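Hi V.,

Quick status before I head out on leave. The structure for the redesign project is tokenized and pasted below; the design run finished overnight.
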């Protein structure tokens, strides 16, 4: 007799509206490479790491071998993917696991992109090649203990002192902050009051990172509280084109759309597992899938999931055409993370008691979507950004 429910985490290839027919060969190849990696390498191992809150370095390292590090950055050994491929890769990684996907999101989407978008040519040449191979790991330090949604009011300071800068302040929730080699620190110039970006190379005197304990989302990835006490950074480590908070905002706008793809990956994992389970699980002498209420719930999940897929395809097309605005990406992030939460709650419930066991590959996604819902702008903040766009009135400063 075969053990029941052993394949719940694996892809069903859910694509009700045939959006995959539109993939180019390059997009299809990237997508399939990551799908195989997830089904054959990530799923068998990840629950143990998530359970113990340990970092799965062997899986992190495989991202470099799969040539998917660096998103759409061209040159410097980076993946140089089309924007739609970037979305597909992040979606599929998150269908496997949120910690793994967020590891890549922080390293590529935030740290490498800060250098690619705000660095000089010399700075790109200096740091990006080693980051593309994951020989150097990146982090992005914007959030502070007192400034999350209003990070524009950050209090970390940078004071010019001859050929270098002296940085002081505290950062919170910094992914990879305790293990990164290169930390992009956003700090306010005490003279001009503008927010500037610095590459802090660790270990650095005055830089301490403490992993935040007790986290129940993205457990196989660590976030840190960071203290910067008179950390001295040479001027050549100040990102040349990070001259105000707007430049930090450009980096974040770029990753906002990717969060919509991440949410789609989590929701797909939940839906696929629920469909498989409903067919396998028998109650009252019949498979769960034969009951009308169960079918209705699965179809509602599919309708929501298909809507998320269409959102993603369109933001991918717009990004390919260079037309993805921060507000469109914001609406996609808001819609997809909140819809994914609903789908994952339904999936968890449809698995009954098995739904709260890690081995069935639903509850991990159910917990992980909470972090994605919050980071890089909460649902409420995305709503306010879009609200400002449609009304012309800002409900926040
Ligand atoms: C797992 C994880 C990883 C992260 N990784 C990083 C990282 O690598 N680097 C980094 O810099 N940061 C990171 N962050 C920080 C993240 O971006 C912030 O948590 C996020 O911006 C929200 O800030 P906050 O947690 O301080 O919540 P707050 O800003 O305090 O918000 C609390 C609540 O109030 C609501 N709210 C806030 N302002 C308003 C308003 N004007 N009107 C109505 N409601 C409002 C919010 O929507 C939310 O519901 C990470 C966070 C998490 C949880």
């Amino acid at each position: 007799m075969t053990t029941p429910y052993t394949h719940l985490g694996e892809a069903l290839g859910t694509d009700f509206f045939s959006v995959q027919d539109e993939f180019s060969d390059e997009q299809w190849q990237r997508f399939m490479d990551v799908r195989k990696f997830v089904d054959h390498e990530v799923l068998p191992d990840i629950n143990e790491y998530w359970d113990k809150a340990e970092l799965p370095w062997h899986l992190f390292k495989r991202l470099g071998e799969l040539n998917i590090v660096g998103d759409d950055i061209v040159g410097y050994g980076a993946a140089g993917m089309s924007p739609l491929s970037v979305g597909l890769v992040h979606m599929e990684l998150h269908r496997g696991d949120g910690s793994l996907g967020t590891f890549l999101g922080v390293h590529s989407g935030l740290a490498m992109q800060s250098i690619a978008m705000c660095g000089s040519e010399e700075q790109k040449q200096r740091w990006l090649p080693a980051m593309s191979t994951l020989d150097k790991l990146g982090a992005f330090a914007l959030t502070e203990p007192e400034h999350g949604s209003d990070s524009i009011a950050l209090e970390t300071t940078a004071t010019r002192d001859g050929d270098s800068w002296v940085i002081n302040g505290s950062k919170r929730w910094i992914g990879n902050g305790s293990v990164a080699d290169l930390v992009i620190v956003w700090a306010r110039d005490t003279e001009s009051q503008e927010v500037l970006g610095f590459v802090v190379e660790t270990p650095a005197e005055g830089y301490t990172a403490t992993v935040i304990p007790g986290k129940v989302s993205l457990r196989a990835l660590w976030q840190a509280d960071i203290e910067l006490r008179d950390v001295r950074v040479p001027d050549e480590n100040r990102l040349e084109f990070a001259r105000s908070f707007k430049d930090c905002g450009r980096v974040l706008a770029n990753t906002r759309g990717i969060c919509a793809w991440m949410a789609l990956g989590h929701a797909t994992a939940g839906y696929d597992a629920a469909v498989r389970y409903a067919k396998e699980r028998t109650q009252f002498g019949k498979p769960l899938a034969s009951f009308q209420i169960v079918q209705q719930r699965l179809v509602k999940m599919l309708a929501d999931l298909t809507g998320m897929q269409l959102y993603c395809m369109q933001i991918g097309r717009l990004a390919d055409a260079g037309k993805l605005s921060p507000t469109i990406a914001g609406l996609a992030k808001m819609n997809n993370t909140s819809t994914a939460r609903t789908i994952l709650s339904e999936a968890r419930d449809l698995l009954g008691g098995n739904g709260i066991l890690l081995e069935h590959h639903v509850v991990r996604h159910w917990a992980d979507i909470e972090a994605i819902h919050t980071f890089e702008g909460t649902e409420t903040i995305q709503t306010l950004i879009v609200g400002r766009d449609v009304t012309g009135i800002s409900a926040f400063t």
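Above is the designed sequence. The pocket of flavin-adenine dinucleotide is lined by residues 106, 140-143, 148-149, 173-175, 218, 223, 371, 374-376, 378, 380-381, 396 (CB under 6 Å).

G. will cover questions while I'm gone.

Best,
W.
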